[in-house]
Write a structure and sequence with these properties.
Elements (H helix, E strand, L loop, with lengths): L2 H9 L5 H9 L13 E3 L16 E6 L5 E7 L19 E4 L5 E5 L2 H14 L4 E5 L11 E7 L8 H10 L1 E10 L8 H9 L1
Parallel strand pairs: 5-6, 7-8
Antiparallel strand pairs: 1-4, 2-3, 2-4
Amino acid sequence: MTLIETRGHQMFPVLDAAQIETAKRFASSAARNFAPGELLYEVGSRHTPSWLVLAGAIHVVSRDGLHHEAAITRLGIGQFSGEVNQLAGRGTLTAGRAGPQGSVLGVDCCDAFLEFGRKDVKAAGIKNVTFLCEDVQSYPFKPEYDFCFSRFGTQFFENPVAGLRNMRKSLKPGGIMTMIVWRKLEDNPWSARRRMRS
């Protein structure tokens, strides 16, 4: 068993309703709501406040030098964030994000690709993700999403302008659209070296 499994109740105590009310009297500011997935504090942050969870959750993660995240714990209602090293003015060793409360829609015109996502979501026990086999360029999206993300997909659009315009239509006012696409060959030295060897 891990240390968190055996001593989690001591490492991450849970305040009862009366203790929460007492703690709220000593808060340095009013309660704040965070968007699902919003970063509360980053690895190395100094002077980070301790957050008492009143609703939802905080997901605490560690990061390695390659920016891979590993879950440490999930702080629920009545638990609070903070690390002992913060008392000495040192940077945090972990990062914390608001827990997921929304939903995710995965769209692709290839159902075989979506099947990989369905299997991953099922294996992880995630319940707030759905998949849709449709063409993003023409699907009649409603402006109801906060975030739109495409990973190596937009470069395959038959009509990139129509596709990007339609993706933008899916967003609420102030929504964010992010894409990852390949750059020129010379901007990808690992690929250029491999090509020269061939």
